[in-house]
Specification:
The chain has 300 residues and is an alpha/beta fold. The chain is built from eleven helices and eleven strands. Helix 1 links the parallel strand 1 and strand 2.
Length: 300
């Protein structure tokens, strides 16, 4: 497996595959990150996607599977697809059999609370979401044109150990830009890293002619509800430590236009045979907090 972009999910997948005997290589963008990843036992290339070195591109063709996690850039688009012809010619005679591009459910836009599946018309509203949709088409065309199995995974918000509502509250982290955008939504798609991982493995072992899959859980609950549940878990596990946490109410706002979309995962279940480990944020957050040691260093 060659992973273009060893971020949160890329590292999780790499660790999982290594345990199963896979040879895994990835890329990152800084020497500091490269050192950190190498200390964790990963083989990593430095990659500037705007000016990729030929040696890195050539290395990709010796792998059988390619995962692309690098997001698009405003005013640039997908940084790797800028070099589409170079990519195509490099990979043409390689060993690749399978390619997956990680996209986002944001490509559907605002749907007034409707259930949306992969056949629902896309209507991205932000510039990044529009570029995501362009990138989906670009990677599908590249992979299918070279004759190997190619998938696009439209992911909900990714969470897992170290990156969840529980972690945000405990660390008192300010909300990210993505979290700010999700504050007012009535419905929010999300998925645990373990379930992305099993969906991805299923797509490897269950060849499919389909190109696009929604990878989300069964419960498109509002962010406010998720944070309230996370706070309850923290209170139960560490009584008296709640003043160290941020208040979920401060992280959410009422908004007249809260209706958004509920994303269906039926194709993923039906065609890839995925049985979710965490069908709801409740299971996912509970598994995360169960693995945590006491993270508080302040007095009750």
């Amino acid at each position: 497996m060659f992973i273009l972009g060893m971020g949160f999910f890329g590292q999780f997948l790499a660790q999982s595959l290594k345990k199963e005997g896979w040879v895994v290589t990835g890329t990152c963008t800084s020497k500091t990150k490269k050192k950190q990843l190498e200390e964790k036992g990963f083989h990593v290339y430095l990659l500037d996607a705007n000016q990729p070195e030929l040696s890195t591109l050539n290395a990709m063709k010796y792998y059988t599977h390619l995962l692309v996690t690098i997001p698009p850039v405003v005013c640039v688009g997908d940084p790797m697809l800028q070099h589409g012809e170079l990519l195509r010619s490099t990979l043409l005679d390689g060993n690749l059999q399978w390619l997956c591009y990680l996209s986002s459910t944001g490509v559907y836009g605002h749907c007034g609370g409707a259930w949306v599946d992969e056949d629902y018309p896309t209507n991205p509203t932000s510039e990044l979401a529009k570029l995501r949709l362009d990138a989906e088409e670009g990677w599908l065309n590249l992979g299918q044109g070279l004759g190997f199995s190619t998938q696009v995974f439209r992911l909900g918000g990714i969470y897992g150990p170290g990156r969840s509502a529980v972690d945000t509250i405990i660390k008192q982290e300010p909300p990210s830009e993505g979290q700010k955008m999700r504050k007012s939504r009535q419905y929010t798609a999300r998925v645990h890293v373990e379930d992305i991982c099993q969906a991805l493995k299923a797509s490897i072992y269950t060849p499919s002619s389909r190109g696009i899959y929604n990878i989300v859980d069964d419960d498109p609950a509002p962010r406010e509800e998720v944070f309230t549940y996370a706070e309850d878990l923290i209170k139960k596990k560490w009584p008296g430590r709640t003043k160290c946490s941020s208040n979920s109410a401060s992280l959410t706002k009422k908004n007249e236009s809260r209706g958004d979309k509920r994303v269906s995962n039926m194709r993923m279940k039906r065609e890839l045979g995925v049985r979710l480990l965490h069908p709801s944020y409740r299971s996912g957050l509970l598994s995360i907090i169960d693995q945590m040691e006491n993270p508080f260093h302040c007095s009750p």
